[in-house]
Specification:
Helix content is 44%, strand content 26%. The protein is of the alpha+beta class. Strand 1 and strand 2 form a beta hairpin. Helix 2 packs antiparallel against helix 3, helix 2 packs across helix 4 and helix 8 packs across helix 9.
Length: 255
């Protein structure tokens, strides 16, 4: 999970920068709309919506915009039935498998944008199913702060966790990612909150079952540029890949 966690850390840092620019607002709004449409407008009874609202607030999304997105998802401001969740798959430089989740009201536009992001950076958008079998969905709770591993293990097991991994939330803050079956994510997050852990993020994520070790600097640069271009697309909610990469190579590739 190491390479995947590194990319997750990069995404968290990028999200903070994008939030300042307002680039994440469209994605957050769509996530709230779909969560409302799927499970109802009451956050108390809709874990997906509650998580989407928490994420939006952490990014500085205005409360009025949150309320508007909920109303839209509930059909109070017109229908959003055209908004569909679609999974795309492809290959990056060096044969890296890439999995993308999108929310779109125009499949042709999204596919064209993704095809361009792949092809301009040495990759190619593939057919549905070409790499999906390499990934498994997991619920992930990211916690921040100093970690007592024995205490974390006990709390995690109480919440139905399968494993955990120590990580760096950012350059100067340690933390951990706790993994579980997606159906146990709400329970796990509540148990960790009760145990007074500082919850940084709650999400469903695709975890690769095998990884590709990227050692070529040109491949690394093209791959990270491609991942960044994909993540920047308004319709894309998440992007992940099955690469491992040394820290110095990753740092150089992001320059």
């Amino acid at each position: 999970m190491a390479g995947h966690s590194k990319w997750a850390n990069i995404k968290r840092q990028k999200a903070r920068v994008d939030a300042v620019k307002g680039k994440t607002f469209a994605k957050l709004s769509r996530e709230i709309i779909v969560a409302t449409r799927t499970g109802g407008a009451d956050p108390a009874g809709n874990f997906q919506l509650r998580t989407a609202i928490d994420k939006a607030k952490a990014a500085g999304f205005p409360n009025d915009n949150i309320d508007r997105a909920i109303a839209k998802g509930a059909g109070q401001l017109g229908s959003d039935d055209a908004l569909a969740a679609i999974r795309y798959e492809g290959y990056g430089p060096g044969g890296v498998a890439v999995l993308i989740e999108a929310l779109t009201d125009n499949r042709n536009r999204t596919a064209a944008d993704l095809r361009s992001a792949f092809s301009k950076n040495g990759g190619n958008l593939g057919e549905t199913g070409c790499v999906g079998w390499m990934f498994e969905p997991k619920g992930v709770v990211t916690i921040a702060g100093p970690i007592d591993e024995e205490a974390l293990l006990e709390a995690a097991l109480d919440g139905g966790a399968e494993s955990y991994e120590l990580t760096m939330i950012d350059e100067d803050q340690a933390g951990a990612e706790v993994y579980c079956d997606p159906t146990d994510l709400e329970t796990l997050s509540e148990v960790l909150k009760i145990q007074r852990y500082s919850i940084n993020q709650i999400e469903n994520r695709w975890i690769p079952s095998n990884t590709v070790d990227v050692v070529d600097p040109d491949h690394a640069r093209s791959l990270l540029k491609m991942m960044d271009a994909i993540a920047d697309l308004d319709d894309v909610q998440s992007v992940t890949a099955n690469f491992e990469m040394a820290d110095d190579l990753m740092a150089a590739g992001l320059l």
